[in-house]
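CORE FACILITY INTAKE
Project code: CF-77B
Contact: R.S. (postdoc)
Sample description: multi-component assembly, two entities in total
Requested service: structural model of the whole complex
Turnaround: standard
Below are the sequence entries exactly as provided by the requester. Do not edit them.
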Amino acid sequence: MKNLFKLFSIIIIIIASNSYSFAAEKVKYLKTDWSFKGLFGKFDRASLQRGYQVYTEVCASCHSMKYLSYRNLSEPGGPEFSEAQAKAIAASFEVTDGPNSDGEMFTRPGKLSDKFVMPYDNVKAAQAANGGAYPPDMSVLVKARGGGVDYIYSLLQGYEEAPSNISLDDGVYYNKYMYGNKIRMAAPLLDGLVEYGDGTNATVEQMSKDVTTFLMWSAEPHLESRHQMGFKAIVYLIILTILVYFSMKKIWSRVESEV
Amino acid sequence: MSDHDYRPKSKVGQWFNDRLPLLTLANHLTDYPTPKNLNYWWTFGGILTFCLITQIVTGLTLAMHYIAHADMAFESVEHIMRDVNYGWLIRYIHANGASMFFLAVYIHIFRSLFYGSYKSPREIIWILGIIIYLLMMAAAFMGYVLPWGQMSFWGATVITNLFSAIPLVGEGIVTWLWGGYSVDNPTLTRFFTLHYLIPFLILGLVVLHIWALHVPGNNNPVGIDIKKPSKDTVPFHPYIVIKDGFALLMFMIVFAFFVFYAPNILGHADNYIEANPMVTPAHIVPEWYLLPFYAILRSVPDKLLGVVAMLSAILILAVLPWLDTSKIRSAVFRPLYKQFYWILVADVLILGYVGAMPAEGLYLLIARVATAYYFLHFLVILPVLGFKEKTLPVPLSITEPVLGGSPNLAAARNKESKIE
């Protein structure tokens, strides 16, 4: 057993040294309590729904979310809009479909099975409309950035007057959390920019938190079932390990040797 | 061993076994005499078998949903993560499984280095192991390309470009590898094909690895030859089966932690950005398990020599049984080697660390010193140590570890035969 402890401590040191080497670029991000972190982490439903509102009213005019479908909005583990609500949301978008029997493309109201409608037809159109910068797709954005949710949360609140020694071109803004501090996106959030249906005060901080929660869900739609299954799996493994340990002790008691 | 005397009890069994001796094989595997003093470092062989099977099973399942096309690969991975039933679970097991596989294989290799398991008569087991390790690296590298994220694309570009360092034919070889003039769809489809093939080659080599192991039998922490079967050994079943099972379960707890609670911590965030040939990431880094070799590659200023150094760092292991001149296997009885062993472990960890850092300034200097020491260990320290080192008395058998200890194996064997 002594060796076993040595072994495990070495594994942990290796893991720690590796994760440390990846966390090399250290920036102090703003912290907040994320309900989805930890062993039993779950999304805050109301926050997800508010986050969707922020996304669709603010971000969606430039940022696509091409891997999500409207049906996802009513699926368990997500914002859990009712099916009727999700249908109404889908129907509020115009979707290009076709070709029909005459060979013509046509538009129709969105259905649950449709993917989120994209703000631009293609990357070039998006760049043309945004001064050459492509607003990244937001489906997995949280996982595609080193700092994850903390980074996105901080970035949304990180707009400041540029220090006097930094000169900014037209259409470029200063953000203290952005890599290189220069960002093409103007500060997207202002206090009271959206009006929350549930009466929550729409401060920049609150909206940042809600929309980041929504982005975490969009990147990891099965996070809740992953946490639930993980807890069960690990408890099961620990119990089994203990049982096997005692069986092993019993079996090895037949020979004069230590295990 | 009792292998050849084995006769199944039932008539049907005998009839079958006379035609295909599978039952004899099963009996051999059950009875296989194993040193009873094996510690937990020896459980990683079984753990690695589990890792290989896990990768193959999850990999097959992923291949049913994955689309190997430059325009669709990234999207198909997202499809797996979102819409395939438990697709997220299968993919996270596969992705973290690769890391767990390498974690286990590094422990397995360093166990062998500590206890001298590569020495006569186990050289073939060791060389087969090195070939498996090389194939694992190839499989892991190509697997990392398949999601077609930014690190996939640029990692593939950097690594395949290494071949251009070969004089005269280099450029031609790179074009041939790519199937075009840059990393593109033909590269992806061939990497997918090879990524699918290599695990089965590994499986075949694992069978040979175990076969070769079963000829001389296991080495052990004391590192002496033992009589088999004897009071120094226990049958593989149930003793080793249950012990390996216990260690495997402990390993699975660590594995499960990563899969369920930190599935992306070992990967790079940039790989969730779809591959874009027009945008180069700020730092191109391989997966953690390849970092020490990446550090060696970058520590040499010349491209060709860097590639040579990186390949030599792996291939030097294949001739290790002849570089290590000491007759004593286990580091337990080699006080000096034991210290150099831990320095080597630290050296490799340092290489891994600087491999993740930008190759400049102090990091580059550290990488160069660590690279030089890596080769120094194998090419100078080990050969010289065998002649210079004063080893401790080696026991005659596992059951009588101290009595009548003798400084070398030959004398120990002599004494043993006299006692008999």
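Facility notes:
- Residues 402-407 of chain B have pLDDT under 50 and may be disordered.
- Residues 185-214 of chain B form the longest helix (30 residues).
Invoice: internal transfer
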